[in-house]
Amino acid sequence: MQTATAIDALLADVRAELPQLRLLTDVADRESYRLDETAYLAAGLPGAVVLPTETAEVAALLRLASRHRVAVVPRGAGTGLSGGAAGIEGALTIAVTRMNRIVEIDRDNLCVVTQPGVINAELKAAVAAEGLFYPPDPASYESCSIGGNLGTNAGGLCCVKYGQTRDWVLGLEVVLADGSVIRTGGRTVKDTAGYSLTHLFVGSQGTLGIITEATLRLRPLPGPRATMLAFFGSLEAAGAAVAAMTRAGIVPVTLELLDHETILAVDDAHNLGLERDAAAMLLVESDAPGAAATGELDEAEAAIRAAGATSIVRAADATEADWLRQARRLALRALERQGTVRMEDVGVPRARVPQLLTAIERIAAAHGVRCATFGHAGDGNLHPNLIFARDDPEAERLTQIVRDEIFQAALDLGGTVTAEHGIGAARREWLPIQRGEGAVAAMRSIKAALDPLGILNPGRVL
Ligand SMILES: Cc1cc2nc3c(=O)[nH]c(=O)nc-3n(C[C@H](O)[C@H](O)[C@H](O)COP(=O)(O)OP(=O)(O)OC[C@H]3O[C@@H](n4cnc5c(N)ncnc54)[C@H](O)[C@@H]3O)c2cc1C
């Protein structure tokens, strides 16, 4: 869509109308906005990158991009795992990282109003200083932005108890493709006026509008967590422990799984002293108040022992708990030391985690592809990580086959091809297979109504 003339004409208008705006046009600068964390996907070099600081600038940028028919890629911190913020050749990347102000922490109404470029961990820390809690915590929480979390409907390590990002959004300010600015909700806890546009924009991966402000729900800060690691002799036993906890109605704040390959990679990289011969490990945490946290872990431990855990370790204090938690948070980076990692994101109804684990193991072995699986087992959301040598075309081909078979297995179990990372550019061909042509046609109608020129993140999601 964007010709050299169109982007040049757009940039001339941008310089004239927004002389104060930070605009990057050097090739080296633009290169650093080519990829997100999907290094295995081909991506384009942005024609330019802009870093607005306020809503009015985003509005002017989209108005001008519409006028010149130039495609726009909304971008947060670029940690996404679906290619959603990766560059499009010659397009304008609008990175909202400088819109990084927390506008107001509203104690009386248990909410926070924030710009989208605020880093998740910084928002958490700011509200925690007021005795409040913003639960969504992707494993990347120290580097990903609230805007990106909203763009992807990010999950994380506490969804089993607190849900995904969408569950914590009261209202948004959104700039539409033509540069107009709308609000979708506010500080009221309950609001049923019209269609829920808030829920529509959350997870739309920058294809329907650019989120420039969000009002997020908070709750009182829970006390310190009780933390436990459990090791198993087989993946099936770990899967059975997850299913048993769900059946027993135990709702820990965190219920994460690491398989043997992941345990080894994390331990090799960070010397955490994990049980290296274990086939699987579960991280279980409770943030129930006071002594109830220990009680909840006692119940979890009973279910885990019954499922055949070989050993169980409890954290003695907060420092040790943090150390145990690191084993899970460091998983992707540890695996990346071993080759190119294609991280997938399948989800199934929780009771079917054991079947999903078995299917992933069987499919990867059948094609001789290395696969390390970890993830949010308590949500039924697992990340099979397919590890291959990037310059080996046969390995890439086999990886693609394994991915497709795992996707089909997840759908056969009543699940999804992406639970929290999004369709983005990486999984588009599976959207009609999962949702059906009718649902995709409805999505296309919404896209056409909100972005008739198709300038917002074209080729992503749909
Ligand atoms: C080590 C590691 C661990 C991770 N762990 C998790 C995890 O546990 N759970 C999880 O869900 N994800 C996880 N992720 C993926 C990633 O961190 C999340 O998807 C995160 O929400 C992306 O935020 P970001 O700021 O980097 O967004 P980006 O990657 O910049 O953008 C993500 C998407 O949102 C859109 N977008 C960004 N800002 C806006 C905006 N203001 N308005 C509209 N659209 C916008 C972009 O167009 C893009 O489609 C992990 C990634 C890494 C590298």
What topology does this entry show?
Elements: H1 4-17, E1 22-24, H2 27-31, E2 48-51, H3 55-68, E3 72-75, E4 92-95, E5 102-106, E6 111-114, H4 120-128, E7 132-133, H5 146-152, H6 159-162, E8 169-175, E9 181-183, H7 197-201, E10 210-217, E11 219-220, E12 226-232, H8 235-247, E13 254-259, H9 260-270, E14 280-286, H10 292-306, E15 309-314, H11 318-329, H12 331-336, E16 340-343, E17 346-347, H13 353-366, E18 370-376, E19 381-388, H14 393-412, H15 431-435, H16 437-450
Parallel strand pairs: 2-4, 3-4
Antiparallel strand pairs: 1-2, 5-6, 6-10, 7-11, 8-9, 8-10, 12-14, 12-15, 13-14, 13-18, 16-19, 17-19, 18-19
Helix pairs in contact: 1-3, 8-10, 8-13, 13-14
This protein binds flavin-adenine dinucleotide.
Flavin-adenine dinucleotide (FAD) binds at residues 36-37, 74-81, 84-85, 96, 116, 138-140, 144-145, 147-149, 151-152, 154-156, 205-206, 210-211, 332, 420-421, 424, 457.
Radius of gyration: 22 Å
Helix fraction, binned, reads 25-40%
Average per-residue pLDDT, rounded, comes to 96
Number of helices: 16
Query: Per CATH, what is the topology of the largest domain?
Result: Vanillyl-alcohol Oxidase, Chain A, domain 3
- Annotated CATH architecture of the largest domain: 3-Layer(aba) Sandwich
Number of domains: 3
The N- to C-terminal Cα distance equals 16 Å
